[in-house]
């Protein structure tokens, strides 16, 4: 059933894109901290 | 430098692993092991995505409003609440978009239309637009404290749409069906019910995992916003001298001209000290 | 962390810090490549300029206005049930509205035209539909139709299935007890 596949895929793609973006933002920011600095605490 | 783990730690790894396992189980049961529906046939399998996403959307906006209230209340005022509000609103908008997308697809299959202006659909679209506006408001720059105050007030006002949206199907006539579970005698087959409940656990874990990560990004962005560039420039120097170049284009050293001059005037004392050390 | 907390406290000093960070970001960018952190800081003040704020506010306001105008105008009375629509027939005239009822056993399809009747609380209305019905359309299913009265017949140009929130496997005895809300 293509509607079911489409719905599940839409949800999966949206979560995946947002996850990728968020984790990447975090990595870039953490990398920009001075050496030895604790990160987001 | 060592490996950059980003915003992950023990907590997010546990939440992330739990999310993966429960999402996989929900897909296994939802797509294969549960029976089709007497009326809707295979289309019923969207019930294992759509209601949970809608609930996560409500929870995200509700959490945003609670955190905003905590920020507005003088005795609990802390930027931590503002960060939580920002994180949960953004994740809430993501789940709101998922709700609208999966709902539209489900509607095309079962109702026969992609969209109709009934109260539930209209209010969900309105909720999405309003919280996108809230996120835009948070991006207007300026003084972080006044931004926190303004956005907290806006969030507390906007969250009023959530209960109206939720009760829309019982207050007015809608094409959208009423509640499946929150009613006197739910009529839903056993394995469908358990899979639906499992989907709420799965989406809840994904939601928490995303909010924790997003909260930490917000903490870091707050630091960079308020402490200027001293941190970044110090790091850039350290990276260049250590010749660690995982990204050649980005690790090109910034010229020490205006940026350093500005950073030493703007940065807090501790950040300034860090900058000097690496110099 | 100490750094973050100390940055929290002084309200007055944090504003110039952010402002000068912006300025230095603009100053540094024409030189070497832009480092990631300044890029993120600028992204955060994406709507920092008055012009962008006006555009963003206009977009959001237009989206909200569109939804409110399209939706809330008729959302509180999304449809009339068959008895309501029959009672209001003279005042409705040829106005476009939505009607809700359950499809009877008399569905007939001739070419592109589907004729059937719908019933709600023992009041029945004849329907003529000119668009292809959705896949779940069949006798016994509650539907919402868009269209208008043409004499005593409801001229429909859109059939929507109003399924319930009951979910049962096809073989389940409860399957036959599906009723509209």
Rg of chain A computed from alpha carbons, rounded to a whole number of angstroms: 17 Å
Return the structural class of chain C.
alpha+beta
Please identify, by name, the CATH architecture of the largest domain in chain C: Beta Barrel
**For the report, how would you describe the main beta sheet of chain C?**
5 strands, mixed, barrel
Shape designation of chain A: rod-shaped
Say what the CATH topology of the largest domain in chain C is.
Answer: OB fold (Dihydrolipoamide Acetyltransferase, E2P)
Helix count of chain C, per DSSP? 6
Entry keywords:
heterotrimer, A: 41 residues, mainly alpha, 1 helix, C: alpha+beta, OB fold (Dihydrolipoamide Acetyltransferase, E2P), 5-stranded mixed β-barrel, 6 helices, 7 strands, disordered N terminus
Short structural description:
Chain A is mainly α and 41 residues long. Helix content of chain A is 73%, strand content 0%. The chains are: A mainly alpha (41), B mainly alpha (279), C alpha+beta (181).
Please give the structural blueprint:
The complex is a heterotrimer of chains A (41), B (279) and C (181).
Chain A: H1 2-31
Chain B: H1 10-33, H2 50-72, H3 79-110, H4 119-137, H5 144-158, H6 161-171, H7 190-227, H8 230-242, H9 258-266, H10 269-278
Helix pairs in contact in B: 1-7, 2-3, 2-5, 2-7, 3-4, 3-7, 4-5, 4-6, 8-10
Chain C: H1 2-8, H2 11-28, H3 36-44, H4 50-72, E1 80-81, H5 82-87, H6 89-92, E2 97-103, E3 108-110, E4 113-120, E5 123-129, E6 142-150, E7 153-161
Parallel strand pairs in C: 1-2, 5-7
Antiparallel strand pairs in C: 2-4, 2-6, 3-4, 4-5, 6-7
Describe this structure as you would to a colleague.
- The complex is a heterotrimer of chains A (41), B (279) and C (181).
- Chain A has one helix and no strands.
- With 41 residues, chain A is mainly α.
- The radius of gyration of chain A is 17 Å and the shape is rod-shaped.
- The model of chain A has no long low-confidence stretch (mean pLDDT 87).
- Chain B is an all-alpha fold and 279 residues long.
- Chain B folds into two domains: 10-181 and 188-227, Four Helix Bundle (Hemerythrin (Met), subunit A), CATH 1.20.120; 230-278, no CATH class.
- Chain B is built from ten helices and no strands.
- The model of chain B is unreliable at 244-279 (pLDDT under 50).
- Chain C folds into two domains: 15-22 and 33-76; 80-177, OB fold (Dihydrolipoamide Acetyltransferase, E2P) (Beta Barrel), CATH 2.40.50.140.
- Chain C is α+β, with helices and mostly antiparallel strands and 181 residues long.
- Chains B and C meet through helix 3, helix 4, helix 7, helix 8 and helix 9 of B and helix 1, helix 2, helix 3, helix 4 and strand 7 of C.
């Amino acid at each position: 059933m293509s509607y079911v596949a489409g719905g599940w895929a839409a949800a999966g793609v949206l979560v995946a894109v947002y996850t990728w973006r968020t984790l990447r933002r975090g990595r870039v920011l953490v990398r920009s901290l001075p050496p030895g600095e604790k990160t987001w605490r | 430098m060592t490996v950059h783990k980003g915003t992950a730690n023990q907590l997010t790894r546990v939440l992330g692993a739990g999310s993966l396992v429960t999402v996989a189980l929900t897909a296994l049961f939802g797509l294969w092991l549960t029976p089709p529906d007497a009326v809707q046939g295979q289309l019923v399998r969207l019930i294992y995505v759509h209601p949970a996403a809608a609930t996560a959307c409500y929870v995200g906006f509700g959490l945003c409003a609670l955190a905003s209230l905590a920020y507005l209340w003088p005795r609990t005022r802390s930027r931590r609440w503002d960060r939580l509000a920002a994180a949960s609103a953004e994740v809430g908008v993501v789940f709101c978009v998922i709700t609208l997308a999966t709902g539209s697809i489900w509607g095309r299959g079962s109702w026969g239309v992609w969209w109709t202006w009934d109260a539930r659909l209209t209010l969900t679209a309105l909720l999405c637009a309003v919280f996108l506006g809230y996120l835009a408001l948070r991006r207007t720059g300026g003084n972080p404290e006044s931004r926190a105050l303004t956005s907290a007030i806006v969030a507390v006002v906007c969250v009023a749409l959530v209960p109206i949206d939720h009760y829309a199907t019982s207050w007015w006539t809608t094409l959208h069906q009423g509640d499946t579970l929150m009613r006197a005698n739910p009529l839903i087959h056993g394995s469908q019910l358990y899979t639906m409940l499992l989907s709420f656990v799965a989406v809840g874990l994904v939601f928490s995992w995303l909010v924790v990560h997003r909260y930490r990004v917000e903490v870091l962005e707050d630091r960079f916003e308020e402490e200027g560039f001293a941190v970044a420039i110090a790091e850039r120097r350290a990276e260049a001298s250590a010749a660690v170049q995982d990204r050649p284009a980005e690790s090109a050293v910034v010229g020490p001209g205006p940026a350093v001059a500005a950073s030493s005037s703007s940065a807090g004392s501790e950040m300034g000290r860090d900058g000097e050390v690496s110099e | 962390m100490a750094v973050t907390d100390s940055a929290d406290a002084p309200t007055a000093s944090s504003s110039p810090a952010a402002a000068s960070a912006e300025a230095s970001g603009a100053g540094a960018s024409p030189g070497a490549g832009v480092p990631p952190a300044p890029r993120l800081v600028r992204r955060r003040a994406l709507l920092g300029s008055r012009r962008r704020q006006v555009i963003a506010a206009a977009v959001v306001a237009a989206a909200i206005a569109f939804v409110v105008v399209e939706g809330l105008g008729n959302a509180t009375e999304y449809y009339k049930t068959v008895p309501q629509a029959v009672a209001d027939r003279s005042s409705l005239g040829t106005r476009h509205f939505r009607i809700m009822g359950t499809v009877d056993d008399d569905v007939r399809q001739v070419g592109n035209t589907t004729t059937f009747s719908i019933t709600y609380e023992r009041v029945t209305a004849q329907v003529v539909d000119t668009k292809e019905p959705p896949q779940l359309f069949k006798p016994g299913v509650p539907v919402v139709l868009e269209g208008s009265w043409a004499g005593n017949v409801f001229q429909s140009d859109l059939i929507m299935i109003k399924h319930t929130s009951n979910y049962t496997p096809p073989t389940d005895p409860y399957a036959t007890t599906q009723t509209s809300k």
